[in-house]
Amino acid sequence: MARPRTPLLSRERIVEAALALVDAEGLEALSTRRLAAELSVSGPSLYNHFATKDELLDAVVDSVMGEVDLGMFAPDTRSGGGAGSGGDWRTALRDWARSYRAALAGHPHIVPVLAQGPGRRPNALRLADAVYGCLVEAGWPRGQATRIGALMRYFITGSALGSFAAGFPEDVQLYAGDYPHLGEAHRLAEHRRAVDEGAFETGLEALLDGLALRFERGGTDHNGSEGPTATAPTAPSPHSVSGPA
Q1: Whether the predicted model's global pTM rises above the 0.90 cut
Q2: Which of 62, 70, 91, 111 has the fewest CB within 10 Å, making it most exposed?
Q3: How far is CA 35 from the centre of its chain?
């Protein structure tokens, strides 16, 4: 009987195994030796596909960015325009933010790397381009579109860094006496998902409400100034647009 064939080594297979390892044990577990063992190959064979560990980590992070839905920014063939050209930029941002957070929630150990920005990662740059393009096409000044992209990245990645509710010990005695307003804090962990998801949705709607009010003023701040980047001779590069990688 023929022996089972070992699947051919490929970039995709390496990235998939590396992501599974990081998901299970954290970034510190990712090493050439450990990954080779997981794949049942020799360590040097990995270098045929990735020259360095940093290159591999970039590919792993970008694979997570590839899970984020960007369909809400695509042109709508029925109306002849996308979210930015006659569509609803607010709905597009809301749907994208939820998809982005869901991707990060599925791979929390990756979040610290993502928070550093898109770098040269293709999926991350496509994401930044889509968000920025939607806002500019909707009528936002370029400088404001840049800042909104950054604001959304800060909010979404921050919400995925950890659980607010899980940070409170389930010890009723801890809060008794000294912390009179935290009498129910010991129950937060029990309702972790509802608290954390509710906080994200509350923050997202508050953020979008504020942006909608600013949009009605023509994308200006409280004193009518669009901001210093509005006078830039060229559009900001994708690296500084929304940087959500």
Answers
A1: no
A2: 91
A3: 25
- What are the DSSP calls for 117-174, one per residue? --TT-HHHHHHHHHHHHHHHHHT--HHHHHHHHHHHHHHHHHHHS--SGGGS-S-HHH
d(CA 27, CA 45): 21
- What is the CATH code for 69-240? 1.10.357.10
Taking the domains of the chain in order of start, what are their residue ranges?
A: 1-51, 69-240
Q: What's the CATH fold of domain 1-51?
A: Arc Repressor Mutant, subunit A (1.10.10)
User: Is 228's pLDDT higher than 50?
Assistant: no
pLDDT at 75: 75
pLDDT at 204 over 80: yes
What does the pLDDT look like over 105-129, one tens digit per residue? 999 999 999 888 888 999 999 999 9
